Amino acid sequence: MSDRPEIECPACDGTGEVYNSHDCMKDCSECKGTGWRPMNDDELDAAAERQAEDAASEPPVTMAEQHRAAWAEKQELRR
After folding, report:
1. Residue 25 pairs with which residues in a beta bridge?
2. What residue spans define the domains of the chain?
3. How many CA atoms lie within 13 A of 45 on its CB side?
4. What is the DSSP letter of 9?
5. Which one, out of 2, 7, 52, 63, has a CA that is 20 to 30 A from the CA of 69?
6. pTM of full prediction above 0.85
C-alpha cells in the first residue's frame, strides 16, 4: 500500500471498469478495478498548492462574527 493519499480514478470515474475495443467491460488498468488509486506527483503537487492558497486566503470567521454579520444584514433588509 502506498503512503500517498488516494483519489477516485479519473480513467474509470471511480467505477473500476472501462470499455475495451469490443464494447465489453474490463477492469480499469490504472486502478486495478478498485475505483481508487494513489495520487501521482503532479496531482500531489497541485493539491499541496491548492491547500497553500486556501490557507493564505482570508482568516476564518468566528461564529460570533457570523452572527453579528447575519443580524446586521437582517436589520438592513427590514428597513
Report:
1. 19
2. 6-78
3. 3
4. -
5. 52
6. no
